[in-house]
Design goal:
Elements (H helix, E strand, L loop, with lengths): L1 E4 L2 E4 L14 H10 L6 H15 L6 H5 L6 H7 L4 H9 L9
Helix pairs in contact: 1-5, 2-5
Length: 102
């Protein structure tokens, strides 16, 4: 289905995840974050860029893997993305919801 995010026509699935990562840009990420009541800081962007890189490398994303990444520990990850951190962070990053997320 198509929706408008940050003034752009974006294709999303039924859960609101982008279906084409090439439609993502930082303004889209900021708009998705704002919908989740998150104001992105440089630290958020570090984590988002890490998630995007891991997705591009086809690495399965899990909370445990993120905690062992040396990018962010689990406690800080939950502070940055308080509600459903992995789902929220991947949605903001414009990548598919990880298979392990319900």
């Amino acid at each position: 289905m198509e929706t408008i995010i940050a003034g752009k026509h974006i294709t999303v699935n039924e859960e609101g995840y982008l279906t084409d990562v090439h439609q993502w840009d930082e303004k889209v990420g900021e708009a998705i974050a704002a919908d989740a009541n998150i104001t992105l800081t440089p630290r958020h962007w570090e984590v988002i860029k890490y998630l995007q890189k891991e997705n591009a490398d086809q690495v399965a994303l899990t909370i445990r893997r993120i905690g062992k990444s040396n990018v962010v520990d689990i406690k800080e990850f939950y502070q940055l993305f308080p509600l459903a951190p992995l789902k929220t962070a991947t949605k903001i990053a414009g990548i598919p919801k990880p298979a392990g997320c319900i």
